Amino acid sequence: MTKADLVENLYEKLGISKKECAELVDKFFELIKESLRNNEKVMISGFGTFIPREKKERKGRNPKTGETITIAPRRVLTFRLSQVFKKRLNGSS
Q1: Is the per-residue pLDDT at 24 higher than 70?
Q2: How far is residue 82's CA from residue 48's CA, in Å, rounded to a whole number?
Q3: What does each C-alpha distance from 36 to 7, 11, 33, 40, 47 come to in angstroms?
Q4: Same domain (yes/no): 21, 48
Q5: Environment class of residue 48 by beta-carbon count within 10 Å: exposed (0-12), middle (13-18) or buried (19+)?
Q6: What share of residues in the chain are helix, strand, coil (percent, to 5)?
Q7: Any idea what DSSP says for residue 45?
Q8: CATH no. for residue 21?
C-alpha cells in the first residue's frame, strides 16, 4: 500500500476531497516523524509501537577484504507489532 492508496481509501470512506485527504495523510506522517526525531516512542493502539534507539560505536569487518573497521554510532528505528494485530495477522480474532 502506498501513500496514494491511503489517500484514495480515506477519500472513499470519508467523502471529503482528495486534497484534504492528502493533507491529512501528510500531516499524520509528519507528526510521527517529528516525534521520532525527538526520540519519542510512537504507539498506535491496535497496530504497534515505533521505538527510536541509539546504537553505540562498534567494531566491524569488511567481508570482502577482512579489514577491521569502526562502525559509527547511529540512531535506528525498531517496530513492535501489537498483540491485537499479531493475533489478527495469524488468523485468530
Answers
A1: yes
A2: 4
A3: 23, 27, 5, 5, 17
A4: no
A5: middle
A6: 40, 30, 30
A7: T
A8: 4.10.520.10
